[in-house]
Amino acid sequence: MPEITEAELKKQIEKADFSNLYLLHGEEKYLVGFYAKKLIAKAAGTAFSDFNFQRFDDTASIDAIASAVEALPFMAERKCVVVSDLDVESLRAQEASKLDELLKSVPDTTVLVFYLPSIEIDYKADKKWKKFIDTVSRTGATVHLKRRSGPDLEKALCSAASKRGCELSRQNAGRIIGYCGNDLQTLFNELEKLCAYQKEGAISAQTIDALVVKNLETRVYDLSKAIIAGQYDKAYGILDLLFYQNEEPVSVLAVLSSAYIDMYRVRVSIQSGFSAMEPAKHFDYARKEFRLTNAERDAKKLTTPVLRQSLQVLLGADTALKSARGDRRIIMEKLIAQLLLIAEKEKTA
């Protein structure tokens, strides 16, 4: 059976029309856990669950899993065996061979579910995972749960707010996503907080601004905007907040450098006669194209030489941070001062 869609999985769960073998994986861990829970609840049923439902984690042996899979259900149509976060990459050759045989011979009386609520797969480089996914696809069903796009996330947030007795416009849903990123678990946690505060009625932009916690990328993006605009107090205020929240200076610098690299790539692309989206063809901007749109807007305020000078200063700060033994805050404060001065020279030139 080839890979099935999220909609097809939902239909199978609703109709209790199961494959004997499933693998739920993907970048959106909230959905992996959500659908695993629904699938397991329906497949396991309630009859004699002590006998007909068995769960294993990443420490289980293939022999133990195989024994559970091959055992007959007790006074029920089927039994359900669940394995979470099995690390296929770390299996020795003998264990891998046993797993391969198991995947090809799951009995009709068992629904075997593998799901990955924590493990991240490099789909291009991890050959063992690719083989595992291919094997499951030939005998069972695989579901790749990817990150949702902006419009889908907005729709999901609006629907979730409505179920909690609140109203959320698509524009304000987009505002939450802009602050938190596209991780569903984080988004729903923030929405839960907003609905608990609002209780009922429309959730305003002001409420979102006051309550939603911005992720690191968003806060550092605000820092880059303040630097480009020459807003000294705001830039150092954001930096102070980042240190107060115990963000690692190396992580802050990495995100800040990415913002400047995005601007430089967009600037060079446009100067070469291409569109601002050209870098997406050559670098990893999958589901992050909005960064290029933001960079196009911000890059208009700085010349190419200024961007190059800024990148040189960022590189120097990176070297200093990684070899620093003392207070790394001084290095970051010096960096912000240098970037502000470079941006200010652009205005006075």
Walk me through the topology.
Elements: H1 6-15, E1 21-25, H2 29-44, H3 49-52, E2 53-56, H4 62-70, E3 79-84, H5 93-103, E4 110-115, H6 127-139, E5 141-144, H7 150-163, E6 166-167, H8 170-180, H9 184-198, E7 201-202, H10 205-211, H11 216-228, H12 232-244, H13 249-271, H14 290-299, H15 304-322, H16 328-348
Parallel strand pairs: 1-4, 1-5, 2-3, 3-4, 6-7
GO molecular function, one term: DNA-directed DNA polymerase activity
Pfam families: DNA_pol3_delta, DNA_pol3_delta_C
Organism: Caproiciproducens faecalis
Molecular structure report:
The chain starts with 5 loop residues before the first helix and ends with a helix. It folds into 3 domains: 139 residues, P-loop containing nucleotide triphosphate hydrolases (Rossmann fold), CATH 3.40.50; 62 residues, Helicase, Ruva Protein, domain 3; 133 residues, Up-down Bundle (Zinc Finger, Delta Prime, domain 3). The longest helix has 23 residues. Helix 7 crosses helix 8, helix 11 runs antiparallel to helix 12 and helix 12 packs antiparallel against helix 16. The model has no long low-confidence stretch (mean pLDDT 89). The chain has a 5-stranded parallel β-sheet, with helices on both faces. A two-stranded parallel ribbon has the order 6-7. With 349 residues, it is of the alpha/beta class. Helix 5 links the parallel strand 3 and strand 4. The chain is elongated, with a radius of gyration of 25 Å. It holds the Pfam family DNA_pol3_delta_C. It catalyses: DNA(n) + a 2'-deoxyribonucleoside 5'-triphosphate = DNA(n+1) + diphosphate. Its EC number is 2.7.7.7. Keywords: DNA replication, DNA-directed DNA polymerase, Nucleotidyltransferase, Transferase. This is DNA polymerase III subunit delta.
